[in-house]
Amino acid sequence: MLTGILLILIALGGVYWFVLSRAQKIKQIKNSVVLEVDGADTRYSDLPLGKLGIFYEISDNQRVRVVFPKLTSHGDVQYIYSWHNLPSIHLPALEKTSPQKLRAAQELAALVKEHLQLEPEILSLREQRQKISDLLNLVATSNFYASQQDIYERALFQVENLLDKAEDLESVYVRFIREALIGNKIVGYSPDLLPDGNSNIDHQYKLIRAEYQRMKDTATAYAELLRTRQV
After folding, report:
1. pLDDT tens-place string over residues 171-199
2. Can you tell me the distance from the alpha carbon of 188 to that of 101, in angstroms, rounded to the nearest whole number?
3. What are the angstrom distances between the C-alpha of 151 and each of 160, 205, 218?
4. What residues pair up with 70 in beta bridges, in sequence order?
5. Environment class of residue 19 by beta-carbon count within 10 Å: exposed (0-12), middle (13-18) or buried (19+)?
6. Would you say the C-alpha torsion 174, 175, 176, 180 has a positive or negative sign?
7. Is this model's pTM higher than 0.90 or not?
């Protein structure tokens, strides 16, 4: 009887430990930017970062989606979105991972995440531009709302400028990421490998990013005004 109870307690303890350790691992993954994925370098060929990828999301059934940045044969930046089971995901171990490669992955992760966040904004701006353009054409044919035409013209001007700036920023992201990936493919990451022009890219990135945010804040005011003046 006592032996049976002990076995049950041991089994319950094992289950509790398994659930607890799994929950702890999920929390660590969510708090990590860079992850190591077993077999990623064999599943996908020519990955500049090898097994290292960028955390994207985790599903309800605890599968982890990772982004692997790579270069195409034409030198274009490509993102591979890949789902993996939890046991194949690990936090990079410093004693097993090249410090240079890990540093490269961490620096790239910040840029890639910003780039991925920018892409839906660009799509949204394109949709806004089309919607405002349609409303402007509609207002121009109206006898009652023709006086509001200048409002839609200014709003369209703001959105088009913001879209141009967002697309400029995206191109800088891509150039920056491309240079870092090329550096990795050549001989492993080192800041000295990047061309002198990289500092110019960095400067351009900061300027465009700051101007994009300023224009975004300004355009928000027009968006609010438009919502109150829908035809």
Report:
1. 888 888 888 888 777 755 555 544 554 55
2. 7
3. 14, 31, 14
4. 78
5. exposed
6. positive
7. no
